[in-house]
């Protein structure tokens, strides 16, 4: 039903007209926003009026007010739809009748109602749709003027819906109809009311196309403040894209367009904007084929995209465009900016052709400047490209910048273009262009994903996609991709569905990053320095699909250089998070990195490093990032699978790290090899046999043969006539090779950690770019799943990965694992060793170093020997004697004397030759922490070794694991050539079933499910190894092999040992008192304990080594589980320490009344906090204490009166002795918060006996003894939530304390006093053994405590009570917490925490006499300058006198 407004209201409103000056004055007076700076020259003002028929839905009229620069009104016109009919404001409709008799929640569940509610802005709280604002044309505005749109949000004190829905007209042209722009001229435009969306026409009109919402086609300044504009909805309700297939940067722009300006042109838009899309475009294929795993394409629909019968628009739309074209040279400065948030450019259902584009042509003059700055866009959905920055002219002398901040980019090719690209840059095509003058900067936080179909129809000439699917493409100039995400890497994925029906392999190239300059002309000789093409990627990125490729010349036109720079990103600390660093590029299996300046378009082309070795035309740079503490973090490239490589057919420079993954090859429990054991068991035999063999050859040799044998040893005869030989260095080296061969055979048959074979091939290494420092390339092996793999190999064995034999295997054989990573590195040529670091600069760690996080860095045993070999002045011992003592379980004392003679070689065991000093960097791997085994990092140097330096007889050699051969056998030099020149026909290539198109969320979910589905059993080889011994060797491409003469190598010392072990065994009954290993006395049965357990005096023995194979796996470091369990023990200690109370805490001021005796009660409340090292906890506690005491006094004949007791108070007889004896019971309960969300509940129950003597001089002596039981129940959680340990235990403690104090009055009335005190407390907590539910054994040692306290209090006494303040200094002299953690298979670790500490406490308190027989006392205190923070402690009690 339509309700008409009263005409009298209208007439009254119209007749009330003031002069322009009066209107201006009133507006200035009543609207503070109207002043000299913010005068609205054109104001579209809505005005509410009462609706007598519907009070909740008032009428809306409007007025267009025009003002001059002074604010004076120059004209007004009605802007009310009710009177203007075709334009003006109109109030929204109340839609609550739709759900009459029901609820909004029930109504919106019905079909199509949700879409309707979103369209009209209807909610449960707001049933009135948005206000309509119908315009006759674009908003009025001009340069230097301000236009305002405003509808009040209140009427008669009530909130009203002031959201505006704008309707623009459709105009007819000679050839078509076109929807008008909202803003198309210079000036400032302010939307001070929220706008829900924009539409064109009244619904019956049809438009052929639609103009850009905001466009600027002239010189001047345009500023648009949108406020909230289509937020959480579609901005454009019926934008129509034309159906022609032509593509132009300035055509079909939806949101912002700058075109055909000149001189100084500025467009700035601000606000929070919803989705910019058009319903006339839709996704590739049928929209009904969207499923959870992605878009399932309709093949028939895709094929039609390549024909003229295509029934849908060809996605030639753009979101934002800055286009100069042929008019670029007419600008002096062109800026296009957006500030705020755009929720989406395009949507999944309605993608655009291109999200954002900046395109310019020829310009002259270096003072010209072009800027496109868009910050930010949450999502971009397109079918051709997400972001484009393009210069098509080869004489572009201006400065140009494109800055775009975006969350995610999704480009799904729809069969209309020759490819799809997420981010595209081409700002240098040769000629006079200078890459230093132009840059594209893309700030991205989530992902760039590309997929879909293409056709062979060439695109617009300006966009050179080369049948390419690329997440990022740089076709010339400077490009920067910067991650803004401090928490996770940016996802990059480029796939394509272009496959022939009979071929499952992709035939089009797909690239996570493609750097390939499209030079149309050779660079001008005067501009050659600026003719480079490079991309900088800053932060962390993860490549799911697509190669990273850098190519050089195209069609014989070279840029000066092409390159890729990878740089870490530092995210400073904020109020809610700590400082973070992102510095890793992760490559999924099967994807590769290639950097070369050869052309992918020409088969069998060669890089310039081969043709022109003295030039650097292609490069890869890894830039470290320095944190706030000055620590440098190298940039990392991680290969997640075994089928990826890095090939730099150019130069490497910088400071970086390559990360290889690894897998466990488990052959059996008895296959853990020990190099030390092997050499100790076999070295003497091998050495003796070798010497005897030389002697036998010597005896049978002729003169010439003897001369040859003398190279290996000096042959001598001793005084008894026995022949013997002293080995020369060459003899030692030859012998060592034979021994190493024997061990290698054993080692190869044992369990191994296999490092993935990811070849890293570098043609040239140069010094770092700016500093000139040596470049370095570190290597790291990812072993994050190693413990899980080991545990899976031993089902039923708790913490199997921490078995001593396994730890020993890694300690002794780490160098073999590290070598695998080093052998992945190959260098083409070596001309200047100084570009790499000298050896001494590589490693700063020391053996057994413990980091601030408690993890251990273990330098391989070979490291020190490596130092010896390149620093000859350093010497090593030739023999070593070690004595070990340990006690067996039966009490037998064993004393071992181990004498080891070391026979040293000067050669590297892996080459059979001396080492060189061409160190490339560090190589390391880290075993994650176990439940008692700390995280441990094994690290050494690796250096570059030439293949000619490998001894032919050595068991190891150049490329001995055939990494390089396997790479060459599978490497297709012309892979990229075939991809770039592919010509698949659209009508046949799409006949094959396509995969669903997946967005970033679906890709991440798929990856997580794939990783989570990996299960392992003990019966299978846990790793899918890269080796296949049954496969026939392949013949590789020998072109690349030429010149690859250098490989990464580690140093392995080749010492052999002659070891003698002498043992002295002392049984328990043999002089046991001397050795302290007497057998315990038997324990007789009793009725209470008929089967007593014999105490074991050796329980506390923790030998460093025992013959049963136990091993200290801690090396002085602890794990996060141990730290959490230590924290549990500390909570017990500190809660027990709360029992170290003063007399006042327990009884109040007993000296106030000599006759106090009876029953007393005390309540306790407090909180302790410990945060020292790696141990953290908070423990809140509360408790009660009750006691009963009696006074025992003897008296003298003297009486004493006190003025403080008041007049008439009786004098008291002076006691000769005055004691209080009593007993107390205490119960305290604590609740703890531990690291990583762990928790603990503990309680203590105490029985105490005390005696207090009071002296007549104001002094007192307090004696107390206590016995306690401590209980604890806990849940300890390790770092990264690997281990959860639950358990409970109890123990006992006792305490004895003596305290003395003396009150000294300061005034005649004896009201003010000082009270010095001294106290000494000794305590003992009994050790306890317990076992957690996950089979961790814990042995907590006895703890002794001695605490001294000295304090002084100042107080005042009165008739009704007293008050005081006191300061104490305390010292713990003895406290030390020690615990031993051990597993059933023999691994153990221990912790030790000194509790010695000096701290202070401040206390305030007082007493109050409620009546003659009832007294109260209270005190509160907290600590300061202590390791343990006692944040508060409150004691309050009451005493009843019998």
Can you offer a commentary on this structure?
By secondary structure, the protein is mainly beta. Helices cover 14% and strands 43% of the residues. The protein has 21 helices and 76 strands. The strands form eleven sheets. The chain has a 38-stranded mixed β-sheet that branches. The protein has a twelve-stranded antiparallel β-barrel with strand order 60-61-62-63-64-65-67-70-71-74-75-76. A five-stranded mixed β-sheet has the order 59-73-72-69-68, covered by helices on one side. Strand 74 and strand 75 form a beta hairpin. The radius of gyration is 43 Å and the shape is flat.
List keywords for this structure.
mainly beta; 43% strand
